[in-house]
Design goal:
It comes from Aspergillus felis. It holds the Pfam family NUDIX. The structure is a single chain. The chain is about 25% helix and about 25% strand. It is built from 8 helices and 15 strands. The strands form 4 sheets. The chain has a 5-stranded mixed sheet with strand order 4-1-8-7-11. Strands 3-2-10-9 form a 4-stranded antiparallel sheet. Strands 12-13-14-15 form a 4-stranded antiparallel sheet. Strand 7 and strand 8 form a beta hairpin. It is globular, with a radius of gyration of 21 Å. The protein starts with 16 loop residues before the first strand and ends with a helix. About 5% of the residues have low confidence.
Length: about 350
């Protein structure tokens, strides 16, 4: 059928940029979030997991038309560790000969971050200056969903999310723990950029449940990927009693979360989610279905999350009033309302 006069040609969706993020779990089973400044070009003013776009130093990512571009791989893992360091100053690296984690004093880490952001050296070059046998600690990263931005958004990303557990106190060299910001304390982070601005205003460890409370009360801005993953993490790590949990209990909760990450159809380690509007709720929120993997993976066996949906209100570029619900409950409510 010929196009009608005046019809606009359908815009070609932007190619998703490969990126990585880390759900970093502290020695007290708290989660690190970064607060982005309001001038940021993506997720402005939001609280996000550490992460960012892949760079050439991370490894060669498959071409845009190759479905393998959207699979867990060393280049995504390298980017996750590099971006965590650049954005928060937390270093995940070990001596490849001894297996011992590197403990680099904060002052040296800050000098390294400045040099990297000013393009004086790469992350790997800085790492080798600290220890010739140093390598990014990518093996413990556990894939925990991939998200592909919907096609109606101008800037799109294919983001591999990971879980990483910092060692529990009894399992760690104290010199490493001493260089990690204390849980619940604020660490002001100034990240030099090409124009000398500040990209991240602060980084903080808090229980996942507390981050969710702040988002639901409107104290902070959070987007659906972060909210859903924190919702899942909180179910395991925030069981009561939380404040008095023993080391054994902290370890058991981590084990339960890891077991969950490998469960489901597909497992959460392999889910690829490109949110799609399912309906509008009675209170005016958008209900996002999570089962579609995105157009880049149509015709493959990749799939998203079939059982849950996210409620969200999008207003002026921010996400508010988030909630996670079972899809079956949404349709049950819809059936009752139509009676």
């Amino acid at each position: 059928m010929a196009a009608k006069k005046g019809d606009r040609p359908k815009a070609t969706p932007a190619i998703p940029r490969p990126s990585s993020s880390v759900v970093l779990i502290s020695p007290k089973n708290e989660v690190l979030l970064l607060h982005r400044v309001k001038t940021s070009t993506s997720f402005a003013s939001a609280h996000v997991f550490p992460g960012g776009n892949l760079s050439a130093q991370d490894g060669e990512c498959p071409a845009a038309e190759d479905p393998k571009r959207h699979e867990d791989a060393p280049w995504y893992r390298n980017a996750a560790v590099r971006e965590l360091f650049e954005e928060s100053g937390i270093l995940l690296a070990r001596d490849k000969n001894t297996g011992v984690m590197l403990a680099v004093p904060e002052a040296e880490r800050e000098r390294g971050r400045r040099a990297i952001h000013q393009h004086e050296m790469t992350f790997v070059e800085w790492l080798k200056k600290q220890n010739a046998a140093a390598v990014p600690d990518i093996e413990p990263l556990i894939p925990f969903t991939r998200w592909i931005t919907p096609t109606n958004v101008p800037k799109r990303y294919s983001t591999q999310m990971y879980l990483y557990f910092l060692p529990l106190p009894v399992e760690s060299d104290q010199s490493v723990l001493n260089e990690i910001p204390a849980e619940g304390e604020r660490e002001e982070i100034q990240v030099p950029t090409s124009d000398g601005g500040i990209e991240i205003t602060e980084a903080m460890f808090l229980p996942a449940a507390e981050w969710l409370r702040k988002a639901q009360s409107g104290e902070i801005i959070m987007f659906p990927p972060q909210f859903l993953l924190l919702h899942l993490v909180s179910h395991f790590l925030d069981k009561e009693p939380r404040a008095t949990a023993s080391l054994e209990e902290l370890r058991n909760r981590r084990a339960e979360l890891v077991e969950f990450a490998h469960s489901g159809t597909p497992p959460w380690t392999e889910k690829c989610i490109s949110p799609k509007m399912l309906k509008m709720s009675s209170d005016g929120r958008t209900v996002l279905a999570l089962d579609h993997p995105g157009p880049e993976l149509e015709g493959t066996n990749r799939a998203g999350e079939p059982d849950r949906v996210v409620y969200v209100q999008f207003r002026q570029g921010a996400a508010r009033k988030l909630d996670v619900r079972w899809k079956k409950d949404v349709f049950a409510e819809q059936g009752k309302s139509s009676l």
